[in-house]
Structure formats: structure tokens, C-alpha cells
Design brief:
Elements lengths: L2 H8 L8 H20 L4 E6 L4 E9 L3 E6 L6 H4 L6 E6 L3 E6 L2
Antiparallel strand pairs: 1-2, 1-5, 2-3, 3-4
Length: 103
Amino acid sequence: MTSKSKAAETNAPIYEADQAWVGNVKQTRQKLSDVCGRHHNKNVRVQTIDGHVYEGTVIGIDGCHLHLAVSPSTMDARFFGAFAASSILTLVLYELLVITLLI
């Protein structure tokens, strides 16, 4: 194998997302960003596609992430330990399944 073909093999992608999926993710991310932006400083319950549930206050949203101020009762102390009190949790928008407004 020549050094040129080794270089080409080294730079070859090992995964490439399907373009239809990419379009759906971008569309969903924009929709969720709009919804979360309209509920800034509101208390919400969020369920991820993996089944994790968090409650907190929407304190920020950027192009890809939802930032929640969460109470210790909604945090998993095994994961967050002593840092569970008054934490900010960052969730990836396209991993969210349900967002419920808490009144």
C-alpha cells in the first residue's frame, strides 16, 4: 500500500449520517428551540428519548441545547454527587421526547 492510499484510508469517514435524517434533526432542533425559547424562566418537566426525566426552570437555550436549573430532588445523586444542589443541566435538543409545562 502506498503512503498516498494509506493517507486516503486514514481520512475516510467511518460513519456518515443519512441526509434525510439530518434534515429531520435540524427541523426538530429548530422546533424545540422555538418552544423552549417561548418558555424561558418557566418550570418544566423534560423526558429524554432514553427515558430520563428532569424537572427544572428553563434558563437558556442555544442552537443545540436546553439549559435547566434543576433542584436536587430531580438529580441522580449517584451521578452528580455533592454537585446536585442547584445545578444547571444541559440537555441536547434532539434527544428530548416530551416537555411538559409545570404550573
